[in-house]
Write a structure and sequence with these properties.
The protein is an alpha+beta fold. The protein has two domains: 64 residues, 434 Repressor (Amino-terminal Domain), CATH 1.10.260.40; 176 residues, Immunoglobulin-like. 31% of the residues lie in helices and 26% in strands. The strands form five sheets. The protein has a five-stranded mixed β-sheet with strand order 7-10-5-3-14, with no helix packed on it. A five-stranded antiparallel β-sheet has the order 8-9-6-12-13, with helices on one face. Strand 8 and strand 9 form a beta hairpin.
Amino acid sequence: MPENNPPTVCLNSKAVRRIREDKKLTQLYVAKVVGVTTDTISRWENNRYPSMKTANALRLAEALEVPLEEILQSDEDDSQNKPKSWFLLRLPKLLILFFLFLIVIVVSAFFYHRQVVLQTSVFATRFLPGYAAPGAVIPVRIQLRTEEENNGFILRESFPLGWKIIESYPPPSSLDNEKGVVRWIAKRGDQMFLITYLIKADSLVKLEGEAYFRGSVIAAPDRRMSPKPVEGDRVVKIQPFLWADLNGDNQIDDKEMLEASKVAEEMKNVHLDWSVLQSIWDAGSYSYEVESQTFVPAPK
């Protein structure tokens, strides 16, 4: 937003309530993101505060994931602009050019400052296995790090439609398995933070395809920040291979078992099925049963 915003704006309370309910967001979730109480959110939605500070409106728009204009009253007083236009038309040409040049300088400085200073200080990297079979459960890890002390973060993750998150640590602040969206809110000052979850692939997904993950992270909104995309792995191949089978040869060798044990250690707060992996490692190889959508040991 430009720097010459008015200190207060007129809120469209009906739009706020409608957008929040359409997105299935609770007043508690919105209050946490904005940094206010649920009573304040209720007053905003009931038009008890028809005007509000612009800073609060920006944070509210961020929480609802919509542009600021969608939650503001749309009627404007055009009469205020007419005298300005009448006056500007009669300014000397050189003065008009000077003002245009000044506007360009101010706008350029604003966007440069926004890009350099207001980038979020939290960075996220996703780690996915290479393969997932229809109906199989795979582990997902998201490593977060910060370069400076912060008040926490908000992580939004989008996963393939038809897939379902069955367990997560920490538990999500908001989860919609139907739309494939999950959010975590954390108020921590740690420089390193790990989110882990188990997700079950759609049982109807076709082999030889691909599944895509995407997400974004933003620092706690004690000031205006722009979100950063989650980096790292984004694609899982749909193949009849176990998640720990790194090269897709229907075997779990010692090196792959060692890598799987590192993943299992990081996933210790969720119930990753280690017994199946252990039995397949002992057997030497495995196969994928299409009917039951399970992996079974297959001795060499």
